[in-house]
Specification:
Layout lengths: L1 E2 L11 E10 L7 E11 L4 E5 L6 H8 L7 E6 L2 E2 L5 H11 E5 L10 H11 L4 H14 L15 H13 L5 E5 L7 H16 L3 E5 L3 H4 L4 E6 L2 E7 L13 H9 L12 E2 L1
Parallel strand pairs: 4-9, 4-10, 7-8, 8-9
Antiparallel strand pairs: 1-12, 2-3, 2-5, 5-6, 10-11
Bound molecules: adenosine-5'-diphosphate and magnesium ion.
Magnesium ion binds next to helix 1.
Length: 274
């Protein structure tokens, strides 16, 4: 593994979408032109909420940011690296080591313990068994589930399942966390718990991009981008880039999150490709 040249103090954006277009079924009768020239630069350490009506292209954009899908036109750069120049193996590595995903529907493996769920990406990353266990345990403690590690995922409440999913997303120490309506299926108390976790992760240096329908959720982000009909219709800053995120109530916990960060990826120099 070799690290690409580190970004200097005058940093390039950690995520850069450049005049991006996405068409589903291009050239066919079923063609849908979803993204129509989206340009967006996300700085390291930012916390960005993406809002917009259903069907406006939010998930499409997040899937491209997560290297789960590719644009039809335009460029996508992570840490200055054009994603289209990476091989499948390199892309898999970027997804596994550099990006953490959280979905609305949790996507945990059923009848499998919280610990085993969180260990899964570490299995793919080739981490040894004992190290996996240690990191998964740490990640579950970070989300307040240190006492639930042996519970089967289907024995946990929705809020707890989402916290397991967040632990799974951060277990490999990704610098960037992408979340698609992570609180969409949660009650207000669980939503607040999840938002406090995201806030602490951001205060500890991780870049967060979160899709949401709810103003309350977006108000926890430092920047709010609104998509409408496949274009960026508004882009406003709620809080400075280098500040703790709005709505974070427990700064002491944020400091602990920094101290027991699962790995140092939040401050890692750049995308690491084989
Ligand atoms: N795999 C797909 N094939 C064809 N059309 C799709 C596909 N995924 C999404 N779409 C369409 O693209 C548009 C944007 O979808 P999406 O990005 O999921 O929007 P949002 O997340 O903002 O609700 C919608 O009209 C949707 O029906
Ligand atoms: Mg969506």
């Amino acid at each position: 593994m070799t690290a690409l040249p580190a970004a200097g103090p005058a940093e390039k954006p950690v995520l850069l979408l450049d005049r991006l277009h996405k068409k589903y079924n291009p050239g066919s009768q079923l063609e849908v032109h979803v993204l129509k020239g989206v340009s967006l630069a996300v700085e390291r350490g930012d916390y960005v909420a993406i809002m917009g009506h259903s069907g406006s292209g939010k998930s499409t954009m997040l899937n491209i940011l997560g290297c789960l899908d590719v644009p039809t036109e335009g460029r996508y750069l992570i840490d200055g690296v054009d994603v289209s120049s990476l091989s499948e193996a390199q892309l898999a590595d970027v997804r596994n080591q550099y990006l953490g995903f959280v979905f609305q529907s949790f996507n945990l493996v059923r009848r499998t313990s919280a610990l085993a769920n969180v260990e899964l990406p570490l299995v793919y990353a080739g981490v040894s068994r004992s190290e996996r266990r240690r990191r998964a345990q740490t990640a579950l403690e970070l989300v307040g589930l240190g006492d639930r590690t042996g519970h089967m995922s289907n024995e946990l409440s929705g809020g707890q399942q989402q916290r397991v999913a967040i632990a799974r997303a951060i277990a490999t120490g990704p610098a960037i966390i992408l979340a698609d309506e992570p609180t969409g299926n949660l009650d207000s108390q669980s939503t607040e718990e999840v938002l406090q976790i995201f806030g602490r992760l951001n205060a500890a240096g991780r870049t967060i991009v979160i899709i949401t329908h709810e103003d309350d959720v977006a108000s926890h982000a430092k920047r709010v981008v609104i998509l409408a009909d496949g274009r960026i219709a508004a882009d406003r800053r709620n809080a400075p880039l280098h500040s703790s995120p709005p709505g974070l109530v427990d700064l002491t916990a944020a400091e602990e999150t920094t101290e027991i960060s699962v790995t140092d990826a939040a401050t890692a120099p750049g995308v690491v490709v084989p």
